[in-house]
Amino acid sequence: RQARYAALRDVEPFTKDGERINLMINAGLRDDVPLLNLTGADGIGLFRTEFQFLVSAALPQRDRQTRLYRDVLDTAGDKPVIFRTVDVGGDKSLPYLRAEGENGDENPAMGWRALRLALEREGLMKAQARSLLEASAGRTLNVMFPMVSEPWEFDAAKAVFDAQIAFLRGRRKVLPEQIRYGVMLEVPALAEMLDVLAPKLSFISIGTNDLTQFLFAADRSNPKLAERYDWLNPSILRFIRRVIRTLAGQQIDITVCGEMGGRPLEALALVGIGIRRLSITPASIGPHKAMFRKIDTRELTEQMELWLNEPVGDLRGALTEWADERDI
Ligand code: PEP
Ligand code: MG
């Protein structure tokens, strides 16, 4: 496996028409981070901090969190890392945090989880903010909040960071050189408010795993529905295309970080609607690099426009044929 990663490590994902596609990895454990250099990815577009919480028997203490984040940044070197604050609850329940709400949630995916939980468990959020700030002393901190549904939730989460910054400044501690804030776009309601929120953000990351389940009201962990909602569905692609259009002209990075972007045809479709940044499973980095070098984005964009404006019945079939004809 290592050899396969290494073979394409130094290949740069430039398309035939010279577009650079930014390919980053999703990670969550210390052991994932070396894959960054092994695959030659551009960074860690999604570091799921809850993994440390999920593999611990008790709430990880602040110094343990700080150590992990610092190690990750050290290993990543010059490459950016986007830390997502804890996304627990839903399909990721913690035995030691099973408090009010969660157990009683009949529908935990849309229940008391992620930022909703973190904002109420203020101690948890404060400790994580302090850890991230301390670990990023003198460097850039990229922090992202999960399951933001309304702009005020971003403001509330950022306020926790602002308070910790003030505290550290009071103690004359070294602060991050730069802090970039972002949100996951995975609750459809937020898409309607993006123009309002975007000026406060450096980036958004579209979480297609949750976005799909909420867009279609289809539980992501229910195997009976797994085959039913194809990611190559015009609703999802039109939705993402509209987000890109809403944000056109704003200084904001747009990444897709759900599993969708790791699949070849889905990645082609995403690039065809204007996505240039993908955060994906490390195993897909090499194959994606090789694939993108064979495409012309202008041709792909024109084709996707046609297919989305007057939706073809079988976009997967059409795109497969398109790719086959071009030996992609
Ligand atoms: C997503 O929802 O698409 C996502 C990337 O986050 P997670 O899978 O951790 O919920
Ligand atoms: Mg999610």
From TrEMBL:
The protein's name is phosphoenolpyruvate--protein phosphotransferase
Say which family it is in.
Belongs to the PEP-utilizing enzyme family.
- Where is the protein found, in the record's own terms? Cytoplasm
Q: Which organism is it from?
A: Croceicoccus marinus
- Upper lineage: Bacteria, Pseudomonadati, Pseudomonadota, Alphaproteobacteria, Sphingomonadales
